[in-house]
Amino acid sequence: MQKLVIWIFLLLTGSQIFGQSKETFNIRAYREKQSHQWLEEFTSFLSIPNIAGDTVNMQKNAAFIQQMMLKRGISNIQLLYPKTPGIPPAVYGEALVAGATKTIIFYAHYDGQPVDSTKWWKGLHPFKPTLLNGSLEQHATIINWPGSAEPINPEWRIYSRSASDDKAGVMSILSAYESMIACGYLRNFNIKFFFEGEEEAGSDHLHEILEKYAPQLQSNLWVICDGPVHQSGKKMVAFGVRGDAHAELTVYGSKRPLHSGHYGNWAPNPAWMLSRLLASMKNDHGKVLIKGFYDDVIPLSEKEKKAVMEIPSPDAQMKNELGFIEQENTDKTLAESLLMPSLNINGMQSANVGKLSSNIIPTTATASLDLRLVPGNDFKKQQEKLVKHVKEQGYFVTDKEPTDAERKRYPKIAKLVLSDGYNAQRTSMDLPIAQNLIAAVKSTTSEQVVLMPSMGGSLPLFVFEKYLNAKTISVPIANHDNNQHAENENIRLQNLWNGMETFAAIMMMK
Ligand SMILES: [Zn+2]
After folding, report:
1. For the ranges 8-12, 124-128, 200-204, which has the lowest average pLDDT?
2. Which domain CATH number covers 459?
3. pLDDT for residue 2 is more than 70
């Protein structure tokens, strides 16, 4: 009855209701008809293991997606292989519109993170998709899959590897396309689909595919579907990602471990040296003290600043959930902190602790450092600032184990091994295509759409820019508590449904 009233209202006014477009209501109605069938298809898809290196199953996944595309009338379906042999292909398809001059490519990935099935909650298995009546954290229980006449509760969750990261992306993009065609909607854009099979293994060969198939992968925009929506549960559009680089820092004491009674107070202790060195890099408020660390950052535009101001603050909720009361950078919110370059200690090691500890002075102390980068930062330059800082603290810096000659010459020695890395990427929110995409996503919800100039995490989106000169915008759909990359990964059904509506709206955007 309620639905009927909405239908009549839309028919009479032909406009939006509760901020949602009439197209969204039609897409939703189609989804409600199809959802049992889609759940069946999705669980079959999730049942195929998708771990890097499992070539046979990765081929099965790719073949399954080809079938999904075929069923939906998508044309020119192909497997795109990189130059390097033995790498899972990207699955490609297209839906061209006569006379269209603009193209959007939708991206998701079908490979998943490695699994340790012993860590999954009892009754769950990474490749036996299971339905629960909520989240495990809320003490949900396993339920039967609904019969074709039984209603589906959108709060139910499917537990399975890649349920959210990122087969949900593949599923929602393809079903969005199906819904839009079934509803008879017209589009301005050619649509292409690109589903990668190597993302969780680092996308090492993605650039080979982009280079090899560059002419057919030209577009006005890549829409990237990966990762979770905002912690508030609101829909999110992100215009960039941070870059990432690493450094492994080791400082040295004596050549062999010494008795802490016989030599303590005399022999240099690398654990103390490393502590002092690390402490010199950041103050008590989380500000990085390395010279010029924040210098190259490109300031946000007025639109971007406004968007950041409007991001709902999950800070109190997250602190409560995570069990601490004071953040680093006390003058900044979580969203603001993620727009700055950061220096993190990922881990530290020097001899043993607890039951394994002994009365020694360690010979070395090591810290793994992670540098997150924002637009303007060059990852090599940022690493060089770190090297310079270590030198300024009186260290001789090398990238190898110190030689005897070096040990005799320098009182303080640090080995700094710099990893490869990549720079941040950001598409301007001010571009007309970005504004049209924002309007399209807004047309699907009565709630606020969270606009993030950059996400905190890192994805190698720069490769799209570098090899195709392409623009990317990320539209994640998963629930924020989806346990991606860990055991008990899950997707909340409403997030899957929301994703379909969002992508359908983007496919039809101006
Ligand atoms: Zn992912």
Report:
1. 8-12
2. 3.40.630.10
3. no
Cα-to-centroid distance, 132 and ligand 1 (Å): 22
For 453-501, how does the pLDDT look when each residue is reduced to its tens digit (9 = 90+)? 998 888 878 899 999 999 999 999 999 989 988 899 999 999 999 999 9
- What domain range includes position 275? 243-297+340-418
Q: How many angstroms does the Cα of residue 73 sit away from the middle of ligand 1?
A: 26
Two structure tokens written together for 75: 């044309």
Place of tokens 């199809």: 34
In a shared domain, residues 263 and 229: no
Q: For residue 74, report the distance from its CA to the centre of ligand 1, in Å.
A: 24
CATH code of 266's domain: 3.30.70.360
- The DSSP symbol for 240 reads E
Q: What are phi and psi of 495, to 5 degrees?
A: -65, -35
pLDDT band for position 159 (50/70/90)? very high
State how far the Cα of 57 lies from the Cα of 169, in Å rounded to an integer: 19
Say yes or no: 390 and 492 in one domain: no
CA distances from residue 474 to 402, 450, 455, 456 in whole angstroms, order as listed: 45, 12, 9, 12
Say if residue 350 is exposed, middle or buried (CB neighbours under 10 Å; 0-12, 13-18, 19+). buried
Residues 34 and 171 in one domain: yes
Domain assignment present for 316: no
The pLDDT score that the predictor gives to residue 12 is 45
Task: Note whether residue 272 is domain-resident.
Answer: yes
Q: End-to-end alpha-carbon separation of the chain, Å?
A: 33
Domain count, the chain: 2
Residue 327 CA, ligand 1 centroid: distance in Å: 27
Residue 229 placed within a domain: yes
CA of 128 to the centre of ligand 1 (A): 20
Ligand 1 midpoint to CA 274 (Å): 35
**Whole-prediction pTM:** 0.85
Ligand 1 centroid to Cα of residue 115, in Å, is 14
485, 346: one domain: no
CA of 47 to the centre of ligand 1 (A): 18
Together in a domain, 267 and 155 = no
Q: Using the mean position of ligand 1's atoms as its centre, give its distance from the Cα of residue 169 in Å.
A: 9
Is residue 44 domain-resident?
Answer: yes
Given 396, 418, 440, the domain boundary residue is 418
Q: Would the pLDDT of 4 be above 80?
A: no
Based on the fold, state whether residues 64 and 176 are members of the same structural domain: yes
Tell me: do 104 and 116 sit in the same domain: yes
Task: List pLDDT tens digits, range 311-370.
Answer: 998 899 889 988 999 999 988 999 999 999 999 999 999 999 999 999 999 999 999 999
**Are the C-beta atoms of 216 and 297 separated by less than 8 Å?**
no
For 359-409, write each residue's pLDDT tens digit. 999 999 999 999 999 999 999 999 999 999 999 999 999 999 999 999 999
Shared domain check, 450 and 390: no
- 430 token code pair: 């001010």
> Is 167:48 a contact under the CB 8 Å cutoff?
no
